[in-house]
Structure formats: structure tokens, C-alpha cells
Backbone:
């Protein structure tokens, strides 16, 4: 394995970690900087193309979190595991990993991230993120049927 590929893999690992940490704390501006300008985010309820649409998706999700309301979670934490990265060229890569989400009530939902990356000006970014949900706790934050 060459040095550039090791660098790509480490940047991608860091990218996934920053997505989780910034998103969970509601810092959406730094999350959006992790995406290419033309990125696509696929979630079970639909697809969102471009940073503005992805930002609107995060804003809508944020309305379901926050303390003081029994229908909301006091906090949210995403955990990823088994990150498998395939560097396909000097400026493209893919990965897949498992995720699980915890709130103050415990395990909420879990699934997989399937990602495509592009290196732009020496920086690896999400070009496409597909979120699949394998399971949810009924009535939890990730339950799409919940109000």
C-alpha cells in the first residue's frame, strides 16, 4: 500500500468521525463542509441533493431532538463500527459501515452507511451518503412512523 492511500484512508476515517461528532452536537455548518457541493444524501424518507438540501434535512431532524419535551431526546450519539474503506483511485473511494444511535433512553435505531467519497483540493469529502435503517425502537427518535 502506498503512502497516498494510507493518507486517504485516515482522512476518510476522520471524516466519518467528524460527521458523527458535529451532527450529534447540532453543529451543522461544520457537517456541511464535509460534503462536496453537489453531494447527495439518501435517507429512508428520501434523497437530498446539494448542501442546501442536506442542511434542510438536518434542520428537520433537529426538530425531533432537544431536552424538555417528552417526545424528544435529551441527546443523541451516533456510533460507527466495521468501517471498510476501498480507495478506488487517487481521488475516489467508497466505504460501508454499521451505525447505531443512542439517546438518553438507550438504543434508538441502527443500520448501515454506504458512502462514496471524492478528494477535492487534497481533502476527502462525502460525494454520496446512503443511510439504511435495519431496526428501530418503536416510538423512538428514529422511528419514522412516530410524530
Residues:
Amino acid at each position: 500500500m502506498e503512502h497516498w492511500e494510507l493518507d486517504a484512508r485516515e482522512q476518510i476515517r476522520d471524516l466519518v468521525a467528524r460527521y458523527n461528532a458535529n451532527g450529534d452536537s447540532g453543529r451543522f455548518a461544520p457537517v456541511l463542509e464535509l460534503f462536496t457541493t453537489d453531494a447527495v444524501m439518501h435517507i429512508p424518507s428520501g434523497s437530498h441533493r446539494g448542501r442546501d438540501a442536506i442542511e434542510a434535512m438536518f434542520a428537520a431532524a433537529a426538530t425531533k431532538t432537544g431536552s424538555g419535551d417528552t417526545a424528544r431526546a435529551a441527546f443523541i450519539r451516533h456510533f460507527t463500527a466495521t468501517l471498510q474503506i476501498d480507495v478506488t483511485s487517487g481521488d475516489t473511494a467508497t466505504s460501508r459501515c454499521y451505525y447505531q444511535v443512542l439517546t438518553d433512553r438507550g438504543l434508538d435505531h441502527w443500520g448501515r452507511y454506504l458512502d462514496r467519497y471524492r478528494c477535492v483540493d487534497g481533502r476527502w469529502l462525502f460525494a454520496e451518503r446512503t443511510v439504511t435503517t435495519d431496526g428501530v425502537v418503536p416510538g423512538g427518535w428514529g422511528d419514522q412512523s412516530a410524530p
Observations:
- The first helix runs from residue 3 to 24.
- The domain at 3-136 is CATH 3.10.450.50 (Nuclear Transport Factor 2; Chain: A,).
